[in-house]
Amino acid sequence: MGTLSGTLVDPVQQRVFGATVIWSEETGRITRIVPMDDPPPGFILPGFVDSHVHVESSMLPPAEFGRIAVRHGTLGAVADPHEIANVLGVRGIDWMIEQAKKSPFVFGFGAPSCVPSTPFETSGAELDGLAVTKLLARPEITHLSEVMNVPAVLNRELEIMTKIAAAREAGKPIDGHAPGLIGDALRHYAEAGISTDHECLSLDDAKAKLAAGLFLQIRCGSAALFQESQLYLLMAQANRCMFCSDDKHPDDLLRQHINHIAARAYRKGIPIQAIAQAGCANPVQHYRLPLGLLQEGDTADFQLIERLDTFEPKQVWLRGQCVAKQGVSYLPRLEVKIINRMEAQPIAPADLLVPVPDANATARIINLQEGLLTTTCTVEPAPVKNGQLIPDPEQDLLKIVVVSRYTPHAKPAIGLIRGFGLKRGAIASSVAHDAHSIIAVGTSDVSLAAAINEVILMKGGLAVADSNRKVIASLPLPVAGLIATTSAEVTARHYEDCDSMAKIFGSPLPAPFMTLSFLALPVIPELKMTDRGLFDGTVFKHVPLITNENGKDTV
């Protein structure tokens, strides 16, 4: 028999009171909750749930993600396996589910709604309406993952509506993804059956989502900026809010998780009942996760917290067993089965040559915008030497290259980018949303080829190469080119090595590899780079890199 006394935070009955929780260690269920007048220090709360996360962003297998997350009081995650599905289809989703079942950590997996995410690049898989319908019939699938194709929903197009109808028929929630959508369009989107949204650009945007009847998923991840003002909405509408990370890099996950949002909310004066409702109860109830909420008869899933200003748990229990104490996880590391698809072949520097016979030619340049995933496009004189397009680090003009991982001996797509800041060397990655081909940015063809080839030889990963073809930092990601097989600690260390070397080579970006990963996502305007070439997101078509002095496209 297990017992724990303290101040119990009950998010179901909205009570905070002194109590002793008694549970059976044999069944893992709470048998009694006994009120007490003078409880010892510490607050007893249910475990946190990340209500929307791409586990692949952590570069960890599901069980390893859970091993680290429990250190922060997280006991469940609502996961969208969109990234691995774009590479391996249903086989990748099956792998995520199989790996997750090896851990007591609770996962609710979604059926990805947008695979491929666009028709403008080479993808590794397609999940049509029939495939998604079959997924939604499975008990391991708890919801339809974020519906990103907003125009298709607004136009009630058959393919996306088939997927939405399948989720409604199965009685499973439908996650949204509608940044900036307002007014009648937002209402029309929600009326299709969408129940949540994690893409709010402002406080007004968040209020509009709530007014439309959506659950607001307040996000604090590694990539997206945290809209802290949204926390005040918990005061009046905690019953319609959840917390999520969306993307969590391995080094960041080692430091904190949902507890970081909870602590910031508490420091803003948000009542602990509201924090527990949004961070614990709402996602469990909305996605019907098998996690206890500190009620008699529930599974014994809870945490003991001494300081609410940090929400760092002293101890964490799952199914009545202590799974973490003082920041140390008791869950074991597990072996990982490798599945992958990497058909790209090594390239030579000569494969990256772009002839420019016109001395007066101009080129379209991708321009980064600080802190944003959107880019701008400028047309400027092309940097040319001996009739070939060259990078010009002095002018912060670098080559950007995408090589399809799905087509052997594919011709590299090449462009120019400003704002990355590298003064020497190159970086490359097989994490490139959403098709996840190989993307690289560099100061010379030699360093670009070296970094790209290292990624290919590793069957996926991150790499940094210097100007002498030497690879000086790397992170192998042998599972789908997205996930490591090493421990979270080792993975995080290698990730930090790659990140640090990119900055030593001159990049001023806070997260160079994160920025690189989104430069292949064509649906985010204005100009992006796919394996088929430059893509203009304002007109939704591929455009040539080189123009002549009269503005006519030539290459």
Can you offer a commentary on this structure?
- This protein is α/β, with parallel strands linked by helices and 555 residues long.
- The chain has two domains: 244 residues, Alpha-Beta Barrel (TIM Barrel); 199 residues, no CATH class.
- The chain has 15 helices and 30 strands.
- The strands form six sheets. Strands 17, 18, 21, 22, 23, 24, 25, 26 and 30 form a nine-stranded mixed beta sheet that branches. Strands 3-2-1-4-13-14-15-16 form an eight-stranded mixed beta sheet. A five-stranded parallel beta sheet has the order 5-6-7-8-9.
- The longest helix is centred in the last third of the chain and has 17 residues.
- The protein starts with a strand and ends in an 8-residue tail after the last strand.
- 54% of the residues are buried.
- The mean pLDDT is 94.
State the gist of this model.
The protein is of the alpha/beta class and about 550 residues long.
Helix tally equals: 15
Structural class: alpha/beta
Distance between the termini: 74 Å
Total number of domains:
2
**CATH architecture identity of the largest domain:** Alpha-Beta Barrel
**C-alpha geometry:** globular
Q: Please, what is the average pLDDT?
A: 94
Radius of gyration from CA coordinates: 24 Å
> What fold name goes in the CATH topology slot of the largest domain?
TIM Barrel
CATH domain class name of the largest domain: Alpha Beta
* Total number of beta strands: 30
Major β-sheet annotation: 9 strands, mixed
The level of helicity is 25-40%
Roughly what fraction of the amino acids lie in strands?
Answer: 25-35%
The CATH superfamily of the largest domain is Metal-dependent hydrolases
Given as residue ranges, the uncertain stretches (5+ residues, pLDDT < 50) are none
